[in-house]
Amino acid sequence: MSAHCVTCTCDRVTDLVASLRAATLQRSFLILPGDRVRENAAASLLNRKTSTLEKWRYTDERLPYCKDRAGRVTYALRDIAAFILGDDPEKVG
User: Fold this and answer.
1) pLDDT confidence of residue 88
2) CA distance 14 to 16
3) Which residue in 16, 37, 56, 70 could disulfide with 41, CB within 3.0 to 4.6 Å?
4) What string of pLDDT tens digits covers the 93 residues of the chain?
5) Burial state string for 57-69 with b = 16 or more CB within 10 A and e = fewer than 16
6) How is 17-72 classified by DSSP, letter by letter?
7) Which of 27-31's residues contact partners 24+ apart within 8 Å by CB, and which partners?
8) Per-domain residue ranges of the chain
């Protein structure tokens, strides 16, 4: 893949993050520091059930996540965008 393609991917992800941020606020979900959202917001943005995201965490880990100090699962909007676009979130950075 050329450097141009990587840049295009980053631009597409950045544009989609902005759209996801707007959709998150429109749906009255909270955006946490670091542009992260809780599991219910991520599920809504992906048009999936929270149980689907939970299953992904325990089976194939297709979408990176973190747990906060209280044990609540959060997802980065950038990772959600990369997932939607079919890019590997680890490579989009």
Assistant:
1) 54
2) 5
3) 37
4) 334 445 456 788 999 999 999 999 999 999 999 999 999 999 999 999 999 999 999 998 789 999 989 999 999 999 999 999 986 555 444
5) beeeeebbbeeee
6) HHHHHHHHHHTTPPPBTTTEEEHHHHHHHHT--HHHHHHHHHTT--S--EE-TTS-
7) 31/77
8) 3-92
Residue 54: name the closest of 63, 88, 23 by CA.
Answer: 63
DSSP-assigned beta bridge partners for residue 38: 74
CATH class of 3-92: mainly alpha
How far is CA 47 from each of CA 20, 44, 50, 68, rounded to the nearest angstrom? 12, 5, 10, 23
